[in-house]
Fold:
Amino acid sequence: MPATELTPPEAARWAARAGLVLPAERHAAVAAVANHIHGVVVVLRELDFADVPPAAAYRAGEEKHDGAV
Amino acid sequence: MEPFELPLAAAADAIRARRMSPVELVDSVLDRIDKTEPHLGAYVTIVAEQARRAAGEAEHEVAHGRYRGPLHGIPMGLKDLIDVSGMATTASSRVRAGHRATADSTVAARLDAAGAILLGKTHTHEFAFGLTTPQTRNAWNRDRVAGGSSGGSAVAVASGAATFALGTDTGGSIRVPAALNGVVGLKPTYGLVPRHGITSLSWSLDHVGPLTRTVEDAALVLTALTGRDPRDPASLSVPASDYRPAAGTDLTGLRIGLPRTYYFDNVDPHVEAAVRRAIGRLEALGARLVEVDIPMTRYIQATQWGLMVPEAGAYHEGSLRTVPELYQEDVRILLEASELMSAGDYVRAQRSRTLMRAEWARMLEEVDVIAAPSVPMPAVGADEETVTWPDGTVEGVSDAYVRLSAPANITGVPALTVPVGHDPAGMPIGMQLLGRPLGEPTLLRVGHAYEQTQPTRALATVA
Structure:
């Protein structure tokens, strides 16, 4: 198992830190799915974001014209 | 032809001309539901008596010169994530037992004002978090998946058990079941149709839109749905517009992007052949094909997951702690695992989305529309979990169904799926048309032009 993969007890501890108490019989399955998700999203670290902001945005107040996406 | 077989536009013409009453149409579709529903399971709830009453009122209005427009007296289904005042929004989940919506969603209120008649609420994969909708069976073959998550809506429309329906689309959930059941599905531009009153899967990826028999029908429904609602923070101020496409089929001068990468990789050969044939048809109508390279393909799935998984986890944070046992296992485990993702993962996905949107905007300066398969393969067997491609790649069925849909969710561009044939087993195949933000008129024009060159499609013959 690569060093970055969560073990079942680590998955349970991380979940508990997030406020989610996992029953013991779920630790292994949750660790496996969490590791799979991590394996998918980790490639985003390859991107050079420089000063690129996140896409999440909000409008401070109403605008009359905001047709552009 | 029975009234339930009519596409929306034809039914609307008949109602406006008083050749057919909304009562006849609604009775016909309710009879059809009686025949199809035991085999297909498209609906969570059917409100037959309420629909008949509404049809009587609609008939009375038409008879007295109060015709509301093309949706007047047209029976429809709403995916059961969409609030209708006084009804449960079950999200096809035991978590929602006892739920009762206290107000209409924006889209339900707009359809009601336009005269559409609610038949019932259609099944979704639980909380829209999946691509198969296991409660519902494919309209063309009961042993195949319906697709999802708007599986009930697609199957109802494909089988004549609704003249149109609404679905939601976070990673393909309108387009996938529409393609797998041989109907039209439109995921509008992000923010064009307000989502107020719709249960969220992932706020920054969720869209709501129509599933219909024809492209023209999708345009008629879209026309009733658009317009800003400040209760949806993503809602756009776009002038009211009639989206009904013109009758012509001439596409001279239109530039159609033909992807050199991504959209035809690991695609079933029957799907590829049918879509390339349809693209050839568009070329014959005058369009010019321009090869395009899809940007940032290595990061599409990572961006989709990096946005969707934490947002879904956040939405369900409360009930995952109080009633976790009420979720289906496939959804529960994803929600639990979502809690182990970092804020860094999420922000990277949002920044990647910024890059991807900019790259797509550049690509869409070179072409007017991109044409591609909607899904890599037709509906698989209900018990199949993976697909093996000729290069040896083994892919989860859900991952495969999301793969060609996700770019339009991440970037917010509109995407339309149009049926373009069947595989040798008789399962439908869809072509996806993607456009610029707010480019719905172009997508609808191209899709409508294609449909006019094709024979009228038959309903699925299930029962």
The longest helix of chain B spans residues 343-366. Residues 92 and 126 of chain B are 5 Å apart (CA to CA). The radius of gyration of chain B is 20 Å. Chain B has one domain: 3-299+342-452.
